[in-house]
Automatic annotation (TrEMBL), chain A:
Subcellular location: Endoplasmic reticulum membrane
Region (Disordered): 51-85
Superkingdom of this protein's organism: Eukaryota
InterPro entries linked: TMEM85/Emc4
Similarity section: Belongs to the EMC4 family.
Bilayer-spanning residue ranges: 112-137, 157-177
Membrane topology: Multi-pass membrane protein
Naturally occurring in which organism (per UniProt): Cynara cardunculus var. scolymus (Globe artichoke)
A cellular component annotation (GO) from this entry: endoplasmic reticulum membrane
Alphabetized UniProt keyword annotations: Endoplasmic reticulum, Membrane, Transmembrane, Transmembrane helix
Signal peptide (UniProt feature, chain positions): none
Coiled coil feature spans: none
Protein name, per record: ER membrane protein complex subunit 4
UniProtKB/TrEMBL annotation, chain B:
Protein name per Swiss-Prot or TrEMBL: ER membrane protein complex subunit 1
Keyword Transmembrane helix: yes
PANTHER family tied to this protein: ER MEMBRANE PROTEIN COMPLEX SUBUNIT 1 (PTHR21573:SF0)
Any one GO CC term of the record: EMC complex
Annotated organism of origin: Cynara cardunculus var. scolymus (Globe artichoke)
The EMC1 first beta-propeller domain, residue ranges: 24-412
Pfam families tied to this protein: Beta-prop_EMC1_N (PF25293), EMC1_C (PF07774)
Annotated transmembrane regions: 952-975
Length: 255, 985
């Protein structure tokens, strides 16, 4: 019976960091939730609820202290903080450029690996080619995310972003080029006509060949072929063989 | 040089190891192939039952087979197939241990060991002029410790030692001009009597000493009226013959060197006889039999030379030869055909009045009438004589009758297959009982567990045997329903006897057989021969309730102008649905590519007057044909005259009776080969039902070549008339082989190529855009295989990718032969070691799978040769791109890889044809090779890339899946438990 029960202590979302920075803490009302798979409500004795109700003033039990406004606190700016902010912006833009150039190294690496993989279609070259195609794609999808940490009103992110996109596109082009060298792109006429069914013929002409006029080969000739076969199997008569080879297949003459 | 040769050889071996071959494992034999051995229609039979451990009968057949059959079961002890030109004339048994055969018009005499069929000796008898072939093996004649055999052949009489086949003496009869009919050796004497006729008007007997061949005596008498047929001996000094008008019987008796002729009119003896009288060749002592239009009369010759008619029986009765019993008694058998049964009676010559034995045997009416009977006796436990009879039926089957029952039967009609077609089996019906499924499921699992054991090497020898048995006897392959892969089919086979057989491709059993009424001898159709089998109705989409049916076309008589006989036969039951009796003559049967609403295929039958007759004779078919007629052409090959002619349909026939299904044709073009330099020896066209997947061939560097694909190409091979004989009859300078590719719509010669110093026989196969042909090169003293590939030059410009993407090309537009497309040709020749009996090519359902040539070799085996070997683009040093394409380096000879014989250990004796049928599975093709034997297998030229192999271990797969699922559950439970423990920590 006891084994079936499961005690879970539930801590619901707590203090927001902004409040903490103000150094104002609100009395928390821990509530221990006692839950059970077999909901035995009768067994519930006590509960601590850590829910912070501060964000919803309507449900707030305790009013804000006098002089406290809920508006943003960073309206008080000083020269110190401005300098600090400039430095931060510089640092951010520098970082952003660095991030934007990162795919270039990747590109070189990829190029090397492609060169190593060779031009035949096998598991390794296919894997590399597809990773070369996939990486830029996923990077392009996450452009916003990559530059998110450096977002600043002061920092112009357009340049780095463009570079980033351009380099990734370059990587993708490299992948496509590799795909082409592997012969996996339909760029040849043969790729478009290789399964083209034969054209319909307008005319139909029927008929059967003449009654069988083939004659079975005579006996003497069988012996001849047997002798020849024997000759070719025994190594002794290399001379004879070479003589035969010299004559070569008959030259077909076109008329 | 030698190094280079060695290197290239090494390379060749390496490459050939890459080519997929059909090598089988030993335990795979019989798994998807079957082989059936036949002998053909029996001509002669000799029993060997006395003092023999195993009772046997030695037979010779019309397929030139000599075989020793087990008398108990009818199985073949041993068998030899002589060549097509080596016709067996006579067989006998000498010294009780040798089978003596005389063949090739009495010029080859062979002795075979009776128990095992090994050849003991062979003698070539070079006669001076062709004559009858006679063989006499005296039972107990001894000359200097030797028992000679007497042979008459090539107008010479020979005495040949039966021990080593040496010619003891030879007597040439060329100077005498006698045509010897009988060789007689009276018991106890040492004189051979050669009885014959000179210039059809003089009766001669020569008495020759058996020791040295000296002529002892010559007696002759002339009959002014001439004689018809043969002289039949009645006793050692009495003979009977028929005069040239077939109305007078001549009794010849020799007394004291004097010949006495006695003439009796047939009409005096038997009343109501007409001109068609003949003497039957049954040798009965003192009795002979005469056949007339209506009956057979047995006539006894008394000692005084009087003729007494003893009995008259119906004409359809078949009479056996006399069988000597003890004490000079002779017996013979008569067989009479009744309603679905036959009456066999054995009579003694001395007591003709009563039947010694009378039996009635039930007989399947699909076997037709009795054609021949051979009897043999045995001594019963009560010392009386028992008889067994070997009978040959109209359908060429062979049966042994004993004590009123059929002991065994052999369907030897299958040794003479004329044409083959296939039919699909019926679709499987729903409603399989549950218990059956459960049972089969259990069996299935059990089988697979056994197989699993086998693969894991855990099985005991008994279990291995059980596995093999399960594999070979899988009920799956011999089911009578259509399967998903299309492996199960009916092979419908027309035999020379006019019988149609349906064979199951799974195990080769005869599903049904039917003796076609239209191809049986009748008053209207006296000499019927079967010609062709065509698919008549193939229900696929519309007429699904109908069974598929086949059209059988035959002809009454050998000449082309003889009237034709047609039947339409249900492919599931073998019932003859329609029987179109003797009608117009048929020279050609053309299967048109149109079908009516009930999916009956339209056929044109061309008669000797070049009129086209349309079948089926329905208004709908006529309407379809009228609509399409302006694009329907046909051609004829006149091999003797050396002319090809092309025709088109002109309009309805100008007959007295209007017939809307008859059309006049007009000659459009003719190609006349100069008779002094070219003689047609082979013509080949593409198979009508061949499917081609694509018109483009992708070559190295992604380049494209467009194939010239046309169904209207005819390959014609001609040789100079001097070289049309056998190999060696002409010098290389005299012989010239010319091959032509002709468009049969316009008569345009697409390509012409000559091989100087080469000659036939030419065997060729045409498929897709290539033709491969086999001939003999006299200069190199070797056989060669050449290939010609045809490419369409007018499409070669279609290489712009953008245009192809947007569809701006003319590649799919219908093509006409009248647009005269430019073609380019690529060709190459290779040496080939074997001579060839037949060439065919694999065909698959969609035509994607690569092709193999199937070559029937002289040794009656079928060799599969990858088409890549006969590629005209092979070069000595292929570039990297060409190697990637799969092009092999050029070699002068084609390799013969022993593993690629698809018939593996078997021989298809007397191989005549190889038929390939696509299965539904694209990778697989069904191959049926026929001759005296039948062989069926299925091939995957590019391996079975689209299915798991039959011996795939499903149990192992199932076991792996179950194990994986169990593992997933176990690890899940374990991880849950661990999680919980972590949480409590």
């Amino acid at each position: 019976m006891v084994r079936n029960r499961k005690f879970v202590i539930w801590y619901r979302s707590t203090l927001s960091p902004s409040r903490l920075s103000e150094g104002r803490s609100r009395p928390l009302r821990p509530r221990l939730l006692y839950q059970s798979r077999i909901s035995l409500r009768s067994l519930r004795k006590w509960a601590v609820d850590f829910t912070d109700n501060s964000s919803t003033p309507s449900s707030r039990d305790i009013p804000d202290p006098p002089g406290f406004t809920r508006a943003s606190h960073d309206q008080d700016d000083s020269t110190m903080s401005r300098q600090k902010k400039d430095a931060e912006a510089n640092w951010k833009s520098q970082k952003a450029w660095e991030v934007a150039q990162a795919p270039f190294k990747n590109l070189l690496m990829m190029g090397f690996m492609m060169w190593m993989a060779g031009n035949t279609v096998h598991l390794f070259s296919i894997g590399i080619t597809f990773s070369a195609l996939w990486q830029p794609l996923s990077a392009l999808q996450g452009v916003g995310k990559v530059f998110n940490p450096y977002r600043d009103n002061k920092v112009d992110l357009v340049g780095p972003k463009l570079l980033f996109v351009a380099l990734n596109l370059g990587g993708m082009l490299l992948g496509v080029w590799k795909l082409n060298t592997l012969g996996l792109l339909p760029t040849h006429a043969s790729d478009w006509v290789s399964s083209l069914s034969p054209a319909h013929e307008i005319e139909f002409s029927g008929g059967v060949a003449a009654p069988d006029s083939r004659t079975p080969p005579p006996r003497a000739d069988q012996f001849g072929s047997i002798v020849l076969a024997l000759l070719s199997y025994t190594g002794h008569s290399q001379r004879a063989l070479q003589k035969l080879h010299h004559t070569g297949p008959s030259r077909s003459r076109k008329r | 040089m030698a190094m280079a040769m060695k290197l290239s050889l090494l390379l060749l071996f390496f490459l050939s190891s890459l080519i997929p071959t059909f090598s089988l494992f030993e335990d795979q034999v019989g798994f998807m192939d079957w082989h059936q051995r036949y002998i053909g229609k029996v001509k002669h039979a000799v029993f060997q039952t006395q003092k023999a451990g195993r009772k046997r009968v030695v037979v010779s057949t019309e397929e030139n087979v000599i075989a020793s059959l087990d008398l108990r079961r009818g199985e073949i002890f041993w068998r030899h197939v002589l060549g097509a030109n080596d016709v067996v004339d006579k067989i006998d048994i000498a010294l009780g241990k040798y089978v003596i055969t005389l063949s090739s018009e009495g010029s080859i005499l062979r002795a075979w060991n009776l128990p095992d069929g090994q050849m003991v000796w062979e003698s070539f008898l070079s006669g001076s002029k062709p004559s009858k072939a006679l063989l006499t093996v005296p039972a107990n004649l001894k000359v200097d410790l030797d028992s000679p055999i007497f042979v008459y052949g090539g107008a010479c009489l020979y005495a040949i030692s039966s021990i080593d086949g040496e010619i003891l003496w030879k007597k040439d009869f060329t100077a005498e001009g006698i045509d010897v009919h009988q060789l007689l050796l009276p018991d106890g004497s040492d004189v051979v009597h050669a009885v014959g006729v000179t210039d059809l008007s003089q009766f001669d007997t020569y008495e020759i000493d058996v020791r040295n061949g000296e002529l002892l005596k010559h007696v002759s008498a002339s009959f002014p009226d001439g004689i018809y047929g043969e002289i039949l001996p009645i006793s050692s000094d009495k003979f009977v013959a028929l005069d040239a008008r077939r109305s007078v019987l001549v009794l010849i008796s020799i007394k004291d060197g004097q010949i006495n002729l006695q003439q009796t009119h047939v009409s005096d003896l038997v009343h109501g006889s007409s001109g068609n009288t003949a003497i039957l060749p049954s040798k009965l002592s003192g009795i002979f039999s005469v056949i007339t239009d209506t009956f057979i009369a047995f006539i006894k010759v008394t000692n005084e030379g009087k003729l007494d008619v003893m009995e008259k029986v119906d004409k359809m009765v078949v009479v056996s030869d006399a069988l000597p019993l003890s004490e000079g008694e002779q017996a013979f058998a008569l067989v009479q055909h009744g309603e679905s049964k036959i009456h066999l009676s054995v009579r003694l010559v001395h007591d003709m009045s009563s039947n010694h034995l009378k039996e009635t045997v039930k007989m399947d009416h699909e076997r037709g009438f009795v054609h021949k009977i051979f009897i043999n006796n045995y001594v019963r436990t009560d010392r009386s004589h028992g008889f067994r009879a070997l009978i040959v039926m109209e359908d060429h089957s062979l049966l042994l009758l004993q004590q009123g029952e059929i002991v065994w039967s052999r369907d030897d009609g299958l040794a003479s297959v004329i044409d083959v077609t296939t039919s699909e089996l019926p679709v499987e019906k729903l409603g399989v009982s549950v218990s059956k499924v459960e049972h089969s499921l259990f069996e299935w699992l059990k089988g697979h567990m056994l197989k699993l054991k086998g693969t894991l090497m855990l099985a005991t020898p008994d279990e291995v045997a059980a596995i093999q048995k399960i594999r070979l006897q899988s009920s799956e392959k011999s089911k009578m329903t259509r399967d998903h892969n299309g492996f199960r089919r009916l092979l419908i086979v027309l035999t020379r006897a006019g019988k149609l057989f349906a064979l199951h491709t799974g195990d080769g059993r005869v599903v049904w057989s039917s003796l076609l009424q239209s191809l049986r001898k009748s008053d209207k159709c006296t000499d019927p021969i079967g010609l062709k089998l065509h698919q008549w109705q193939i229900p696929h989409h519309h007429a699904l309730d109908n069974n598929p049916s086949v059209l059988v076309v035959g002809r009454c008589g050998l000449s082309l102008s003889a009237s034709s006989a047609m039947s339409i036969v249900d492919a599931y039951t073998g019932k003859e649905l329609h029987n179109m009796g003797p009608a117009h003559s048929t020279v050609q049967v053309i299967s048109l590519p149109f079908s009516d609403s009930t999916e009956q295929q339209l056929h044109l039958l061309i008669d000797a007057d070049k009129r086209a007759h349309l079948y089926p004779r329905t208004p709908e078919a006529a309407e379809i044909f009228q609509r399409e007629s302006e694009n329907v052409y046909w051609y004829s090959v006149e091999a003797e005259a050396g002319i090809l002619r092309g025709y088109a349909v002109k309009g309805s026939c100008n007959l007295e009776v209007p017939n809307e299904y008859c059309f006049e044709t007009r000659n459009l073009w003719s190609i006349v080969f100069p008779s002094e330099s070219e003689k047609i020896i082979a013509t080949v066209t593409r198979k009508a039902n061949e499917v081609i997947h694509t018109q483009a061939k992708v070559i190295a560097d992604e380049d494209v070549m467009y194939k010239y694909i046309s169904k209207n190409i005819l390959f014609v091979a001609t040789v100079s008339p001097k070289a049309s004989g056998p190999i060696g009859s002409a010098t290389p300078d005299e012989s010239l082989l010319v091959v032509h590719l002709v468009d049969t719509v316009t008569g345009r010669i697409l390509h012409r190529m000559s091989h100087s110093g080469s000659q036939g026989p030419v065997h060729a196969v045409l498929s897709e855009n290539w033709v491969v042909y086999h001939y003999f090169n006299l200069r190199a003293h070797r056989y060669e295989i050449s290939v010609i590939e045809i490419y369409d030059q007018s499409r070669a410009e279609n290489k712009d990718v953008l245009k192809l993407i947007v569809g701006k090309h003319n590649l799919t537009a219908p093509v006409s032969s009248y647009s005269r497309p430019e073609v380019t040709i690529k060709s190459q020749s290779y040496f080939f070691t074997h001579s060839v009996k037949a060439i065919s090519v694999t065909s698959t359902a969609k035509g994607i799978t690569s092709k193999h040539l199937l070559i029937g070799t002289l040794g009656d085996k079928v060799l599969a040769l990858d088409k890549r070997f006969v590629d005209p683009r092979r070069s000595l040093n292929p570039t990297q791109a060409e190697k990637e394409e799969g092009l092999l380096p050029l070699t002068d000879a084609l390799p013969i890889i022993p593993q690629s014989y698809i018939t593996h250990a078997f021989k298809v004796e007397g191989l005549r044809g190889i038929e390939t049928v696509p299965a539904k599975l694209e990778s697989t093709t069904l191959v049926f090779a026929y001759g005296v034997d039948l062989f069926f297998t299925r091939l995957a030229p590019s391996r079975t890339y689209d299915s798991l192999t039959e011996d795939f271990n499903y149990a192992l797969l199932l076991l792996t899946i179950v194990a994986l699922v169990v593992a997933i559950f176990v690890t899940w439970v374990l991880s849950e438990r661990k999680d919980l423990q972590d949480k409590w920590r």
